[in-house]
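Fig. S4 source data, part A: sequence.
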Amino acid sequence: MANKEKKQLSVMEDEKFIEFLTGKFGDVEGRFDKAEGRLDKVETEVKSIKNQMVTKAYLDDKIADLEGKLIIKIRKEDEKFTLLVEILLDKKVISKNDVSRIEAIEISPNLK
């Protein structure tokens, strides 16, 4: 075999090898593109979830606000109740013993 023929045979073998690789692995790039597209979609969805998600700090602030509002309302109701007991005592509807028993009941002692 001459050198020229060997080179032609080598080129043909290279071409067949390239065809083989292209046949077997040619769709890999397409599959990677599809996977990349799906990952982009997942990333977008995760970003959306993060934007809508409530943080612990936000919840802590809201709970503290709610607690403060409840304490204020409980104190106002306690003031009303105390006033009512005083009025009833003044009008002699209840006795001092009744007032003592009522005052012994503390609904929220830690709020005073």
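Fig. S4 source data, part B ends here. Residues 22 and 69 are 71 Å apart (CA to CA).
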